[in-house]
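Quick one, T. Sequence first:
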Amino acid sequence: MEKVNTIIEAIAHDKNITIESAKRAFKEALINTAKRLEGQECKFEVVDDTQNDKVEIYRILNIVADDDPLLEEQPEVYIGLSEAKEYGDVEIGDHLRLEFDLEEYGHTGAANFYKELEYHLQRNIEQELFEKYKNKVGTVVLGTVTRVDEDDNTFVEIGELRGLLTQRNRIKGEQFKVGDSIKALLKFVKVDPKFGMLLELTRTSPKFLEALMAKEVPEIEDGDVEIVSSARIPGERAKVALTTDRANIDPVGAAVGSNGVRINAVSNELNGENIDCIEYSPIPEIYISRALSPAVIKSIRIISNKEGEKKAIADVTSDQKARAIGKSGINIRLASMLTKYAIELNDIEGSSATAQTNEEQVTKTSDTSALESLFK
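Structure tokens:
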């Protein structure tokens, strides 16, 4: 087949795929067409003669002795030595390559090749799209709502594909209509039997919050400030732990922004979700104390059970207990999710007015073995 590269370039341009992908589909179509015409067990090889802009296809036969039973069992794959010698000087065990001419099959050959080419082109298009969006998993994508079905599933047009935002992955209270522009986190790419290739979207994942903050806070995007952990109850409240190794950067201040402009932009995108930013500490007692803010914690003890599971017992005065728990238990739940510790509150006498600052008190009353090791 001549002028193949010209044809392949035209196909790639028409289908909006790479030349390599179009060439791969072309070769796969040739081999499958040859197998349709000669037999599925036959073996074929495509040779790309780029210098002469040609593609040639050969049938591969294994040479065996004339009395070998394989000649009767698999005639599509084997050829006897006597017959093979008609094509040249060969021996048993060699491979005979016979040129396959598709044009000899006329209209039947052309029709089969066209169907195979369309099929393999579509497969390669889908594969390229799959790889393209697979690399975007975990990032924020922007799309336009095209349909909302009776189950309140929202379908979003994102580039060449359709995204699905189910009710479970949507922030409580959110309502979308056709034409709305929305942001969401690409959760994963899947092939749905009904809708074909589909992008699973979410607006409830903590990773969506982190991705939005990276967009709004240059220090996070640049890596100067790191998000250590995050926890959300979508649409209500979230906590984010931040850290930095730059002495001249306040990680919480950078995330909040002047007059709260940065964190408010993220909150507005999340349907008014309240976001608490705290500074991470490698000392668990201090970290947990900060996670329980705005409550003032008197002291924290870390204990482990027989299974090795760790629990934090936080001593709080009666006037701080409600703050530590939060409305419907939201504050202590988020603090536990953020720090990965089960947190238990222990009532003690006194009031927060007589306590030292939260971090100072925790540092003095917590187990200092981690600090002592620094001075050995």
